[in-house]
Amino acid sequence: MEVQTSKAIQFRQLHRGPGVLILPNVWMWPARGFSRMPVFRHRNHLGGIAFSLGYPDGQRIPREEMIARIGRIARAVRVPVTADVEAGYDSSPEDAARTTRELIQLGVVGMNLEDTSGRPDQPLSSLELAVEKIKAARAAAWNCGRKS
Question: What average pLDDT does this structure show over 29-35?
Fold first, then answer.
């Protein structure tokens, strides 16, 4: 937990720097000429991880497989890791909280949580649900931090 706390502090300090913080996607980092990588941002960019495992993009990869891949990345690098967890791998605030707790346990210091519904007829979830998911994820992160 000490290493993760140090990475989280480093990540927060990067947000307070004099310039814009650019978080390159893992897939494009070397190709775009980034000379150093202050933060390792796992992102399911174009479904990269999902595609590599035979799944289409759009939260089709089972959450356990995606969480396992994020964990492998977090263990393999020395820089802070943020993760794109799509819509939290289900639709409830409780699922967003569970995903948050699991990511923290893996050593991840930040995450993107989308407001997509997975429904073609209504691609975005309601504002109320999005707010509840954010509240649940924030409470889960707060409670994990207090236990350390």
Answer: 52
User: What is the C-alpha separation between 142 and 125, in angstroms, rounded?
Assistant: 24
Give the Cα separation of 137 and 60 in Å (integer): 21
Q: What is the 3-state secondary structure (H, E, C) of the chain?
A: CHHHHHHHHHHHHHHCCCCCCCCCECCCCCCCCCCCCCCEEECCHHHHHHHHCCCCCCCCCCHHHHHHHHHHHHHHCCCCEEEECCCCCCCCHHHHHHHHHHHHHHCCCEEECCCEEEECCEEECCHHHHHHHHHHHHHHHHHHHHHC
The residue length of the chain stands at 148
Ranges 10-14, 21-25, 71-75, 100-104, most confident: 100-104
What contacts 28, CB < 8 A, 6 or more positions away?
45
- pLDDT tens digits for range 98-122: 999 999 999 888 888 888 877 889 8
* pLDDT for the residue 136: 95
- This prediction's pTM: 0.75
| Residue 31 to residue 15: CA distance in whole angstroms | 24
Cα distance between residue 141 and residue 123, in whole Å: 27
